[in-house]
Inverse folding.
């Protein structure tokens, strides 16, 4: 190791060649004195980055609070269209995913490679579940009135179903859709003139959160690939997977705040 | 975790390859271009930022000249005699001259004539003017002043001053540069597609309704949004660098004050920029999807936009000025060979300004908010004045019993003290509620923030460039002509902006394409001043070009500085230092330390009294 | 091109200010104290100015003395001097605090005066829209008077010129009584600024803001401040009326004609103000007279001419019931089309004109004023039927049905 000329490889990268797992071959960037220092710096940098994410959402929460204060009735009405059961399920899904993420980091730290990979994959699948629930059971019916056939909410509207598609997999409920943000709001049974604003806040907050879920899943997929092909993470080097985990916990944490604000306060 | 080989830690430089100047080309033309485009060397990235920022400064400056030229003459609709093709007056059947209306005073409309060639309404010329000042404001704020000192000088000198080989995250640093360029391309393309007329503040509901048929505003706002990422990543990088990469022996209070200032700046960038990020994103959604959060017709609140906007944009004022404080805190001790007076006060004042900057955004809205908020924000605003004043006192006290050389950077630093004092003091009537209700959104405000932003930051940027030019490029420049340029800029600047204080108190509102005739004399002086300013900057440009082409080789420590960057070669080698520097003296210990590369003969140390230190 | 400064800046209301801060006020203000609050504002400004000058000169003097006295001499080191002195540093931190606290208190004190209107103020409504001001008097009338401003006799309108091409509204206000505006905007943000009163407040589209002032007339030397029409204001009996003009500027950027969004506050005696507002009161007027007042007071006259000449929008001469080519096909300019053009002006644009007519609401032009406009337009159109035609719900003609 000491014979390697690190300057051909100035950024802290994986030294090519050899048959050992990548994490054993990893050398810190040439401007670091030790790998520990590099790891500390990456963690500090990542915490700062997480602070910026929190502040980004803080702006949204601030907008939510002000609008809720100005138009309490519209927000109560809007909130009543959200099904707390789907929200709770999604919360559970994300909490589980946070657990698998943390466990995965632990596994890599113990050099249990295949266990770590499995947990990473599980986290990814949980993320996917979250998005699926969000889009198929929450966004789609509210925007278009199309329900998936086994959505329990559909039972309230059986007599209103006016169309079916994909062999009965999707049912359209007349008049249910149109709960779109702002100017595109066209829900006919709205009881408060400011309800469009509620949907604007709802879609902005959950939409930007969903975008973060997607970014987090991309990072997880990238870690998984590196772990699978190169055994990139192990007891002495796990920076990337650790920071991905931090990011994922933040995504989870933001949802923990969004969930009661949007679903539970009426 | 395992301990890696510590042998490498002291192995700075070492084995020989690429140990020449960082500027040495790596091969042929394309190889060199590719090397620069993919470099992770903070010095090259700093130079790339410098080039990009100077280019944007040129664009923004052109827009400023367009604005000033338009204001040379008020727009009027006048009755004139109609003439035929030969220029003879047309006569009607009774032999009386035929009169027609004509719009005079619209310079921009004559330069860029409308389709069809004839100016039939004042709107066209006004639209050009509104685009010109928006262009000027947006470019100068988002693409010039914010990245000017931090991204170019900061990138180059933070690692050098800390005795490090690079910033903490070199690849992220390169990414920041590309993000900056991408954001700038968005902004410039919005201009090429017809321009934006919202003003750089993008106030709703004007910004969400204007030019509804095209996407220029969205492009410009997205450009600012993207530039925000560049800003966040650069700030984050610097914070971690300062925390983790100080040379052995360098404690927090052994850091040069430039580092302190950059550290405070970076913290503001990291903490304030996300808020503008979400605000601009909501603005884009507002335009594209009409979500209504800022749109009063859908129940939204335009004042909320202003709060969000200024929550970022006020701290950002200190992102612009704190680096300038840092540069001045370097230049004054170095060029007067004097320990800075009250090091800790200056360092803590930087942090103090950074802290208070988050609490004063409301003073941009005295004319729109209620009395309680306005009063609190007014009181907090005066708080900012205290650390700022302390800094000015410290700089002036540093001059006392110094050995002051009137080099170009020092000349600029003294000009900074002059201009920034005016800028700061004219902030007082803007912070006081009663006078602000008169002066808000008038030319007084325009003059005030130009004294602070341009007289403060841009002047200091140029000062820092002259201070570190020999280090960056290894060449000296012609001091005489550089001083001529500095004086020209100084005269032009004061002529341009001092007149605007009087315009403001007399009632000239800002962002006016035209005005009532009483204001014309002052406007003419101001415009003449802007041309003098242009001349001054052109002199500097030629001095720099001459220096690069024919300048004599710079010594490693031309001014006798004590901070670590002067220990490196000029220009620095690829890895900055041949051996990892170990810090044995403070950054400004001029009484006890002979500057690196200087001989004790050239620099006799003063006799210290027994009770010194 | 280089016009000289006009001589209209003669300060008329200035009692020359007294006090240590008074010298130099003319550099900044052309008149001193058109009312008590403006006086206090100017005084505060001048106090801050001289305090600032004191500090600035003090600092720059020290700086220059140091630069000269301690300039570098080759081979001579900078002598030792302490680089830290706690007492000195505390002193120069604390002394500015006193100045700053004084300025803050004064600023707050005068500010409260600007905010709180006396209870017996005259209540009026101010409406801002791109790019015009409208003030509704307590009796519901609005001022129909407009003027071009400028200084040069070669300019538009004979003796006048203007910063654009549009005449700006004149609002008659009684002197020496407090007046209180409730302000609202029709579209984007504007800001109502009368530099002579030293106050501005923003005007929002979704909330009311207020503005109050009391303009001095008694005891002031009365002639025009900046309006150069040179015409006297006279009563119906031919008596000269003393008046003072103050400019209104829009101070919040609002688009193309932001710099043309001006107005004039004309301060006149109460009796004359009452007579004027009664003259413009629509009560007891015929529909055509009401229509003419609306035409003048709501800004229609800025673009629509009455004499057939081409303005920024179609002339109203011979417009009523005429055939107009539009982007939605040819239409007859009947009541329905005119109504549509006022409340939703973008619907059908007459060929050859830009689509820049502002939207009016029923609050600005109610049914009665709308009927007045029809009557007024009918009275100047050769296509109008001679006898009074039904004015509402006119059956659509086959031409309007097309497209």
């Amino acid at each position: 190791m000491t014979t390697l000329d690190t300057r051909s490889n100035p950024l802290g990268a994986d030294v090519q060649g050899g048959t050992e797992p990548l994490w054993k071959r990893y050398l810190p960037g040439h401007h670091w004195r030790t790998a520990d220092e590099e790891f500390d710096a990456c963690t500090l940098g990542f915490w700062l980055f997480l602070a910026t994410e929190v502040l980004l959402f803080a702006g949204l929460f601030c907008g939510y609070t002000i609008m809720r204060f100005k138009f309490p009735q519209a927000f109560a009405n809007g909130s009543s269209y959200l099904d707390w059961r789907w929200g709770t399920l999604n919360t559970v899904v994300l909490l589980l995913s946070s657990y698998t993420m943390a466990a995965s980091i632990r596994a890599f730290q113990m050099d249990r490679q295949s266990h770590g990979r499995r947990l990473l994959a599980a986290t990814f699948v949980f993320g996917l579940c979250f998005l699926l629930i969000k889009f198929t059971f929450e966004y789609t019916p509210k925007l278009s009135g199309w329900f998936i056939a086994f959505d329990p909410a559909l039972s309230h509207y059986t007599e209103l179903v006016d169309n079916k598609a994909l062999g009965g997999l999707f049912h359209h409920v007349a008049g249910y859709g149109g709960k779109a943000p702002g100017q595109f709001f066209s829900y006919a049974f709205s009881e408060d003139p400011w309800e469009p604003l509620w949907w604007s806040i709802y879609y902005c907050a959950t939409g930007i959160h969903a975008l973060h879920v997607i970014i987090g899943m991309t990072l997880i997929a990238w870690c998984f690939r590196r772990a699978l092909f190169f055994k990139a993470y192990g007891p002495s080097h796990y920076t990337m997977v650790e920071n991905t985990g931090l990011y994922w916990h933040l995504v989870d944490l933001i949802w923990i705040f969004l969930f009661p604000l949007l679903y539970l306060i009426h | 975790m395992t301990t890696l080989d510590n042998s490498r830690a002291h192995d700075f430089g070492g084995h020989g390859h690429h140990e020449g100047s960082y500027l040495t080309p790596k091969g042929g033309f394309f190889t060199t271009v590719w090397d620069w485009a993919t470099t992770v060397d903070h010095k090259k990235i700093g130079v790339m930022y410098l080039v990009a920022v100077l280019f944007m400064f040129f664009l923004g400056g052109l827009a400023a000249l367009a604005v000033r030229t338009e204001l040379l003459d008020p727009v009027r609709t006048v009755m004139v005699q109609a003439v035929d093709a030969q220029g003879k007056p047309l006569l009607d059947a009774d032999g009386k001259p035929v009169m027609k209306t004509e719009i005079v005073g619209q310079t921009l409309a004559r330069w860029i004539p409308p389709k069809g060639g004839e100016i039939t309404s004042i709107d066209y010329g006004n639209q050009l003017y509104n685009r010109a000042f928006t262009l000027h404001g947006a470019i100068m704020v988002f693409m010039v002043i914010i990245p000017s000192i931090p991204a170019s000088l900061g990138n180059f000198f933070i690692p050098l001053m800390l005795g490090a080989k690079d910033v903490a995250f070199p690849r992220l640093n390169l990414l920041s540069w590309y993000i900056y360029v991408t954001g700038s391309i968005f902004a410039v393309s919005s201009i090429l597609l017809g321009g934006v007329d919202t003003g750089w503040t993008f106030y709703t509901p004007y910004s969400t309704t204007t030019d509804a048929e095209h996407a220029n505003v969205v492009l410009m706002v997205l450009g600012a949004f993207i530039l925000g990422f560049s800003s966040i990543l650069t700030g984050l990088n610097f914070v971690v660098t300062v925390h983790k990469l100080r040379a052995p022996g360098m404690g927090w209070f052994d850091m040069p004050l430039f580092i302190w200032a950059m550290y405070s700046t970076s913290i503001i960038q990291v903490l304030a920029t996300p808020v503008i990020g979400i605000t601009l994103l909501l603005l884009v959604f507002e335009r594209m999807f009409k979500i209504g959060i800022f749109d009063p017709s859908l129940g939204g609140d335009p004042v909320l936009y202003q709060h969000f906007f200024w929550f970022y944009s006020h701290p950002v004022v200190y992102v612009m000025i704190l680096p300038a404080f840092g540069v001045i805190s370097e230049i004054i001790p170095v060029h007067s060979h004097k320990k800075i007076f009250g090091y800790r006060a200056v360092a803590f004042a930087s942090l103090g300004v950074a802290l208070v900057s988050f609490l004063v955004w409301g003073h941009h809205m005295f004319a729109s908010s209620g009395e309680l908020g306005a009063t609190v924000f007014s009181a907090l605003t005066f708080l900012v004045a205290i650390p700022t004043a302390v800094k000015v006192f410290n700089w002036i006290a540093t001059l006392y019993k110094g050995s002051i050389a009137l080099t170009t950077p020092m000349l600029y630093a003294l000009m900074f003290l002059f201009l920034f004092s005016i800028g700061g003091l004219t902030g007082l009537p803007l912070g006081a509620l009663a006078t602000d209700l008169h002066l808000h959104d008038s030319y007084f405000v325009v003059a005030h923030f130009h004294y602070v932003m341009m007289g403060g930051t841009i002047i200091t940027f140029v000062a820092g460039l002259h201070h570190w030019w020999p280090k960056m490029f290894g060449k000296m420049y012609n001091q005489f002509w550089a001083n001529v340029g500095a004086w020209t800029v100084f005269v032009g600047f004061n002529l341009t902006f001092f007149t605007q204080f009087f315009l403001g108190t007399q009632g000239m509102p800002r962002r006016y394409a035209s005005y009532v005739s009483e204001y014309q004399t002052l406007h003419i002086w101001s415009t003449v001043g802007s041309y003098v300013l242009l001349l001054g900057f052109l002199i500097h440009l030629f001095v720099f070009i001459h220096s690069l082409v024919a300048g004599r080789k710079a010594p490693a420590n031309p001014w006798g500085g004590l901070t670590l960057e002067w220990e490196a070669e000029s220009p620095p080698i690829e890895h900055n230092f041949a051996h990892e520097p170990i810090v044995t003296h403070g950054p400004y210990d001029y009484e006890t330390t002979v500057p690196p590369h200087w001989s004790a003969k050239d620099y006799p140390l003063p006799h210290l009294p027994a009770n010194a230190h | 091109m280089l016009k000289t400064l006009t001589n209209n800046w003669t300060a008329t209301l200035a009692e020359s200010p007294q006090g240590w801060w008074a010298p130099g006020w003319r550099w900044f203000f052309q008149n001193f104290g058109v009312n008590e609050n403006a006086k206090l504002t100017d005084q505060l400004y001048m106090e801050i100015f001289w305090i600032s000058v004191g500090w600035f000169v003090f600092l720059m003097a020290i700086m220059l003395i140091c630069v000269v006295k301690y300039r570098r001499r080759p081979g001579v080191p900078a002598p030792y001097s302490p680089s830290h002195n706690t007492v000195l540093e505390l002193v120069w931190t604390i002394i500015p605090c006193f100045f700053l606290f004084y300025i803050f208190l004064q600023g707050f004190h005068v500010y409260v005066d600007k905010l709180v209107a006396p209870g017996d103020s005259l209540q009026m409504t101010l409406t801002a829209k791109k790019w015009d001001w409208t003030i509704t008097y307590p009796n519901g009338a609005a001022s129909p008077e407009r003027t071009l401003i400028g200084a040069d006799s070669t300019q538009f309108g004979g003796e006048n010129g203007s910063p654009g091409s549009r005449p700006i509204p004149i609002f008659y206000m009684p002197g020496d009584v407090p007046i209180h505006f409730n302000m609202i905007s029709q579209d984007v943000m504007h800001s109502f600024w009368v530099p002579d009163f030293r106050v501005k407040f923003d005007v929002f589209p979704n909330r009311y803001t207020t503005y109050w002032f009391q303009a001095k007339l008694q005891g002031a030397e009365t002639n025009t401040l900046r309006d150069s029409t040179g015409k006297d204001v006279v009563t119906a009996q031919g008596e000269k009326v003393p008046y003072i003009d103050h400019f209104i500027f829009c101070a919040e950027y609002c688009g193309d004609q932001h710099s043309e969004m001006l107005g004039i506050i004309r301060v006149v005696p109460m009796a004359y103000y009452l007579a004027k507002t009664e003259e413009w009161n629509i009560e007891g007027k015929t529909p055509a007279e009401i229509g003419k007042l609306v035409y003048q007071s709501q800004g229609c006259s800025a673009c629509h001419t009455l004499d057939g000449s081409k303005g920024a929008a179609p002339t109203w001469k011979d417009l009523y019931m005429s055939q107009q080519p539009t982007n939605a096909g040819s239409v007859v300019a009947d009541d329905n089309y005119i109504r549509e053009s006022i409340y939703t002006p973008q619907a059908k644009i007459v060929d050859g004109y830009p689509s820049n007519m502002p939207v009016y609401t029923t609050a600005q032009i109610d049914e009665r004023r709308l009927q007045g406009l029809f009557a007024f337009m009918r009275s100047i159109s050769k296509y109008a039927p001679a006898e009074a035609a039904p004015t509402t719900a006119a059956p659509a003609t086959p031409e309007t049905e097309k497209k």
Q: What stands out?
A: Chains A and C do not touch (no CB pair under 8 Å). Chain A is about 65% helix and 5% strand. Chain A has a mean pLDDT of 87.
